[in-house]
Design a protein that fits this description.
Elements lengths: L2 E5 L2 E3 L5 E8 L2 E12 L6 E6 L5 E3 L7 E6 L4 E6 L8 E11 L3 E5 L3 E5 L2
Parallel strand pairs: 2-11
Antiparallel strand pairs: 1-3, 3-8, 4-5, 4-9, 5-6, 7-8, 9-10, 9-11
């Protein structure tokens, strides 16, 4: 079984920055794609950013140039650096990790961390 633990959310003023972290643990053999999603109240969960095992990244248009996804393979951890935050970035942010354990393929989600952008 794979566990994901997220940290780094909070309250920030517009224009501020936050850094989210998501650490995966368990009998992990390898990790493929890692990503961040978010869900605002009354809205569907949406993809924010992804990063492959080779380091290729992808972003939704509204966060390009402001958010940066990165990963530390030695620590099985994915990060989301969020700069120039806007009120519309307010949401619960979830990490997602796909990979292989010693027994099966996995597709796991973090517990979610609240990000609130408000003055």
């Amino acid at each position: 079984q794979v566990q994901l633990v997220e940290s780094g959310g909070g309250l920030v003023q517009p224009g501020g920055s936050l850094r989210l972290s998501c650490a995966a643990s368990g009998s992990i053999v390898s990790i493929d794609a890692m990503g961040w999603y978010r869900q605002a109240p009354g809205k569907q969960r949406e993809l924010v950013a992804t990063i492959t095992s080779g380091g290729s990244t992808g972003y939704r248009g509204s966060v390009k140039g402001r958010f940066t996804i990165s990963r530390d393979n030695a620590k099985n951890t994915v990060y989301l650096q969020m700069n120039s935050l806007k009120p519309e970035d307010t949401a619960v942010y979830y990490c997602n990790v796909k990979g292989v354990t010693s027994m099966i393929r996995f597709d796991s989600w973090g517990q979610g961390t609240q990000v609130t952008v408000s003055s």
